[in-house]
Amino acid sequence: MKKHLSILYIVIINLYTISYSSSQSNIIDCNNVTYFKDTFYVSSSNDIIANTIFYNDSTSMIYPNHCLMLDTSLISVSYVSGSINTNSDCHIFTHLTQNSTRDTIDFDFKVTFNSNNFANNTVVNANLVLSDMNSTCTHPVTIILQNSTLNLSGVPISKNKKLIKTIDFLGRAIKPKPNIPYIEIYDDGSIEKKILIQ
């Protein structure tokens, strides 16, 4: 009886090891999941957040769930991509796989204003969350709400612009370091490329 229990115990341990190592090999490297933009101006006349996922990982995500999670109730979003309108803030892809040097998927979120009681240039923090059974990749984005007239370029006119984010050339939020170029994004939609010389 002890011999059978020992064999069963070894089999269970081996199965656990195989299962654990297999799931570990399928974890996505979130540094290889990036987005084209991370700052958006929206208004009742410009209510679509359009973006692109750049996926540069050799591991496929199986049935990945993609969501835009907001930290406000002023607005809500629904996923729109071509003929797909989920009427919710999430969408499930069949797969997201690396078939080329850099795979991309275009997507849109339609914004609905739940209230007009906000100041112009109100900043909403949000997260784009891409996840499957083994991985969750979170990418912060900024949504700037407009309730006034925009200029012809679609960007509000502002004399006293404020810095809202500093990113590297892959779109990741960073703190500037000497001799490494970076981009500053301002609340009027303008950007400046800079480098600290040491």
Describe the structure.
- The chain has two domains: 30-156, Immunoglobulins (Immunoglobulin-like, Sandwich); 158-198, no CATH class.
- Strand 14 (182-186) and strand 15 form a beta hairpin.
- It has one helix and 15 strands; from the N terminus they run αβββββββββββββββ.
- The protein has one helix spanning 2-25, and strands at residues 33-35, 39-42, 48-55, 61-62, 65-70, 75-81, 84-85, 90-92, 95-96, 103-113, 122-131, 136-145, 163-167, 182-186, 191-194.
- The protein has a five-stranded antiparallel beta sheet with strand order 1-3-10-6-7, with no helix packed on it. Strands 2-12-11-5-8 form a five-stranded mixed beta sheet, with no helix packed on it.
- The N and C termini lie far apart (73 Å).
Question: What's the quick description here?
Answer:
This protein has 198 residues and is mainly beta. The protein contains 1 helix and 15 strands, in the order αβββββββββββββββ. It folds into 2 domains: 30-156, Immunoglobulins (Immunoglobulin-like); 158-198, no CATH class.
